Amino acid sequence: MLSIFDQGPPSPCPAPFNLAAFVLRRAGDSPNKCALSVLRRDGSDDWSYAELERAVRGTGTGLLRAGLEPGQIVLLRLGNTVEFPIAYLGAIAAGLVPVPTSSQLTEPETAKIIAELKPAAVLRDPEIACADHPLQIDIAALEAMRSLPACDWAMGDPERLAYVVFTSGTSGSQRAVAHAHRAIWARQMMVEGWYALTPEDRLCHAGAFNWTYTLGTGLMDPWTIGATALIPEPGTDIAMLPDLLREHRATIFAAAPGVYRRMLRDREALALPDLRHGLTAGEKLPQDLHRRWEALTGTGLHEAYGMSECSTFISSSPANPARGVALGQPQVGRRLAILGEDGQPVPQGEPGVIAVHKDDPGLMLGYLNAPDEMAARMQGDWFLTGDQGAMAVDGQITYLGRGDDMMNAGGYRVSPVEVESVLGTHPGIEQVGTAEVEIKRDTKIIVAFYTGPKELDEAELRTYVNGTLARYKQPRAFVHLDALPSGANGKLLRRALPAYFPARSPDPA
Prior knowledge:
Shape: globular
Strand content: 25-35%
Mean pLDDT: 92
Distance between the termini: 39 Å
Number of helices: 14
CATH architecture of the domain at 48-180: 3-Layer(aba) Sandwich
């Protein structure tokens, strides 16, 4: 059997359509129900569905009164506050195209974005760095817009541009990823395929308001079905999250693996009586962390895989838990394949590139100002993710790492994830990343970089992996670090690891 998953196309997105209108479609049914609680140690700041819709549509009116026109781009330079999702949805409601960006970007970095996208306006918190722009709308003005009359929903073709996010392209430089309004329609496949979300749920996301993972999983998806979103206030200590989950009766918790790791540190038990399960995405979930969460909480932990270009489309769920180290399986309605170098699906069990069909409703429209890069990512009818995976006979997919993260040992290609999953079970290792390091001209070795309370004996670590990993997969050197290099959202940067390798020769193999 070939590595292809195709149960036919999902139901088509209705037309005319507006992403923000779809997100808030339940507001009229339950206007007084709590849509959002910003969690604090001494209570919460609650927003009903009626208040949320009023703020979003009032913001849409205000942006149009400021002289902006449907179809124009607006750059969001907002911090980790509720203004972020309100401005984002308000812009879309009015037919504008918001571009959320990390608050950590510098002024020169934003200058490049402004030069590339030529936004009609910048929605800005004055505390957030931003290059000059002739039309900047600040926080005070955005807050005042909330009380304005509601704008009409800007309905139209679901294929038209709705929003833009930035991600690293295949060239290594940032690319502007353009998404259609239909992207929110595609996210319904996650509701059963990952979340098992119901209108009665209270979903707490540990991320910041201005992170796209939080925006989608933590806010828009719960609102789309009429559930309640819980977001800890900015600056909340991760150690306080269990108390907040208990106090505010969270039924589902979502976070990146690094948050789970820190929550469980030095704990022998974790009582969360209302919690049904946890969700995780952003980087590969280590098996030992998965087992520890389930042991301490008695609840499942379900992982999802996706990307800025297509959100999440492979996941485990309460109804279909992942088996072993697998990510899970393609969500019902998706069309996926594992492709070989010839662009054809490989036999089940063999590694290849994870690919998404061009007709997936969640797939981006393309890269703005970089059509050649989009063309380079296509192989016939398939969009190449750049990630390696293998599909088992039951359809579950094991993640093998980025194509450009794959290591070479004696002519064999080695997945860093496979090596890390073994070392991650060592009791003295908290986090681990592996990379190929050139120790002299034309000589490269696999090196494991790890964090933990103390530096471990290398001979003992070699013994630990011996018998579990083939010899060619075993690290030749081990480096203890205080912290592994990571991006703004805590995701491991494997390509940065070789710079931390000390100038020394590895022990002989």
